[in-house]
Amino acid sequence: MLHTLNFGSKEIVYTILYTKRKTLGITVNPDMGIVVKAPVESSFELIEAKVRKRAPWIIKQLNFFLTFYPKPNDKKYVTGESHFYLGKQYRIEIIEDKKNEVHYKGRYIQINTKNKNKAKELLNDWYRIKAKEKFQAIAEPIIEKFKKYNVEPTGIYIQEMKTRWGSCTPEGKIILNPELVKTPKGCIEYVIIHELCHLVHHNHTQKFFDLQTKENPLWERWKKKLEEFG
């Protein structure tokens, strides 16, 4: 059952999980879910008071995870429209042709296609190819640096995600959203380093942020740029 608490202009929606624990704990998950784990004898009034007290921290965590939420794509995929690649803006040019292919030249991304309605599909396929190529190249030297912490991902994978820029599985797979290839290289490095830090420290503890700062001193700048991107 979901419970709602209003804190200023913010609405905090959370789930209560009663367990055989002695203290009450609050977890904010990357999917923006908020779980309150409480001792079985806890009253709702006590839980609500705890959530209200921790509201500033909860909102801070929610805002942090919003970094990994790409903005909706409202592009029309017509000639002259602006699209990003590695942080730079390009105009797309759609040309009717006997073959389907995409390449960029100067400040243009040219989409040759038999059917103009396929422009979006062709461009997204091109982005996926470029993402696979660029992410691997950017990740390799960073992964090498992280070997000193006795960690190494099992692989870098590309997967469309509506609400995340990247994630790390318990098995050590680092999954990156192909949309990330539209952002500057520094943003890509930030997400990769963030996920690699999770191989060392699974949760967002102070040790996690200390490590992230050590390996990427300017991470807050790139986090902000990612939040504003699009």
Tell me briefly what this model is:
The chain is α/β, with parallel strands linked by helices and 230 residues long.
Structure report:
This is M48 family peptidase. Residues 22-228 form the YgjP-like metallopeptidase domain. Pfam families: YgjP-like. It comes from Flavobacterium sandaracinum. With 230 residues, the chain is α/β, with parallel strands linked by helices. The strands form three sheets. Strands 1-2-4-3 form a four-stranded mixed beta sheet. The protein has a four-stranded mixed beta sheet with strand order 5-6-8-7, with helices on one face. The chain has a three-stranded mixed beta sheet with strand order 9-11-10, with helices on one face. It folds into two domains: 2-68, no CATH class; 82-228, Metalloproteases ("zincins"), catalytic domain (Zincin-like). Helix content is 37%, strand content 27%. The longest helix has 28 residues, at 119-146.
Largest sheet geometry = 4 strands, mixed
Stretches with pLDDT under 50, minimum 5 residues: none
Order of helices and strands: EEEEHHEEEEHEEEHHH
Q: CATH homologous superfamily of the largest domain - what is it?
A: Metalloproteases ("zincins"), catalytic domain
> Could you give the distance between the termini?
35 Å
CATH topology of the largest domain: Zincin-like
Overall average pLDDT: 90
Spatial sequence of strands, sheet with the most strands: 1-2-4-3
Rough outline: globular
Helix content: 25-40%
- The helix count comes to 6
Quaternary state, please?
single chain
CATH class of the largest domain: Alpha Beta
InterPro entries: UTP_pyrophosphatase-like, YgjP-like_metallopeptidase
Domain YgjP-like metallopeptidase: 22-228
Pfam family, one: YgjP-like
Protein name: M48 family peptidase
